[in-house]
């Protein structure tokens, strides 16, 4: 083994996120500003799709099955 590994292996550990990381760092701040699960227009002035988008929390297929919208869906 000494021929393959001339030096001992390096071991590193990573600290888990704490409350300060969630509240301070910008990448996690979006977690608290989430939009509700629904579809609808984006509201931009020059959007060509907005007039055709309907606000909905669920949709149904032709057979009548009801499906909930899982994320915020808009024109953007």
Task: Show the helix and strand layout.
Blueprint: H1 19-24, H2 26-29, E1 58-60, E2 66-68
Antiparallel strand pairs: 1-2
Descriptors for this entry?
76 residues, little secondary structure, two-stranded antiparallel sheet, 2 helices, elongated
Describe this structure in a few short sentences.
This protein has 76 residues and is mostly loops. It has helices spanning 19-24, 26-29, and strands at 58-60, 66-68.
Commentary on this structure:
Helices cover 13% and strands 8% of the residues. It is low in regular secondary structure. The chain has a two-stranded antiparallel sheet. The model has no long low-confidence stretch (mean pLDDT 81).
* Approximate helicity band: 10-25%
Question: Which sequence of SSEs, written as H and E, runs from N to C?
Answer: HHEE
- Give the N-to-C terminal Cα separation: 57 Å
* Helix/strand class: little secondary structure
Average pLDDT confidence is 81
How much of the residues is beta strand, in percent? 5-15%
Major beta-sheet overview: 2 strands, antiparallel
Give the low-confidence spans.
Answer: none
Radius of gyration, taken over Cα atoms and rounded to an integer in Å: 24 Å
Number of helices, counting only DSSP H or I runs of 4 residues or more: 2
Overall number of strands: 2
State the strand order across the main sheet. 1-2
Instruction: Identify the overall geometry.
Output: elongated
């Amino acid at each position: 083994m000494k021929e393959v590994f001339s030096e001992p292996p390096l071991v590193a550990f990573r600290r888990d996120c704490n409350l300060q990381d969630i509240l301070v760092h910008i990448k996690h701040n979006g977690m608290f500003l989430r939009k509700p699960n629904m579809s609808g227009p984006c509201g931009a002035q020059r959007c060509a799709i907005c007039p055709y988008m309907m606000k909905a929390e669920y949709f149904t297929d032709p057979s009548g099955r009801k499906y909930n919208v899982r994320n915020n869906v808009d024109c953007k």
